[in-house]
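Fold this sequence, please.
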Amino acid sequence: MLSRVADSLFWMSRYIERAENNARMIDVNLQMMLDIEGSSKEAIAMHWLPIINTLEDSELFHSLYAIPDGDSVAEFITFERKNPNSICSCLAYARENARTVREQLSSEIWEQINKLYLFIRSEEARQIYRSSPSEFYSLIVEGSYLFQGITDTTMSHGEGWDFIQLGKFIERADRTSRILDLKYHILLPQDEEVGGNVDTIQWMAVLRSCSAYEAYRKVYVDQVHPWKVAEFLITNERFPRSIRFCIDSLDSALHRISGTVDAHYGNEAERLSGRLRSHIIYSNTTEIFSPGLHHYLDNIQLRLNEISNAISELYSSNPYPDMETQIQAFLASQIQTQAG
């Protein structure tokens, strides 16, 4: 497969997954604010700022918005075209990548991506968002689910499909780790004890942000405990959004592409994914929490970045920053057209 095609399929998939995760995270946090009564402006800011920080967009956010509250953070992560990680930008990036490889996609895949892109830019989307944010974000998540289902059922499961899997699972593992890190390090109020009402509500929000609450309760039927939530979202081998499941799927896709036998590696990306996979498989709760959950998750994020870079060096002739520059120019032209 041409490296240009592989690169576009990889990033198309990553951007769709990123848009879905952003929608789920914002929706859950908006709903969680309803459970926290009598919050001061400072408390509201402390609730929303960590989300910006964990997405590593705090500098850009503060340059555009004065107050970190639900309205400004939701706008920034949902519609802000100057934010390269907003849902609107992610869907534009996904569409532009898909456009360059339309011959590799089924017509149904292209139509679904185009439908999502046109929806997020429409006045209808704004109206739904103003009347019911939860309904709006549900439509984004459902649109991503449709993309994944259509891709699985209308595209041959060859190299192209495997590159789509690479993008999906590396992005999903990264976002799950960031959601966990966000809660454990920042969200717990200083006057609230671990295991208190606010703490429990927030850990339930973490599970819901990963669509994991019902799956978690089927494994752990008792109260929501921090160490059990972390264990479930990191090491569970059957839940599709756990870090282990994502790394297993990522590693398998890499081996299918190269043809290398499982448990061996034929390139740097496979070596790095195999090392991370073994690290997670043989981790237990003590090893995860002993050095600190933040340290453990930060290490996972660094390793995922290494794998992503190795994949780009191995299969991509168009480094990601160049593609982002092209798409930013495309978005700017769209804004100028509308302004005119």
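The CA atoms of residues 86 and 264 lie 38 Å apart. The radius of gyration is 20 Å.
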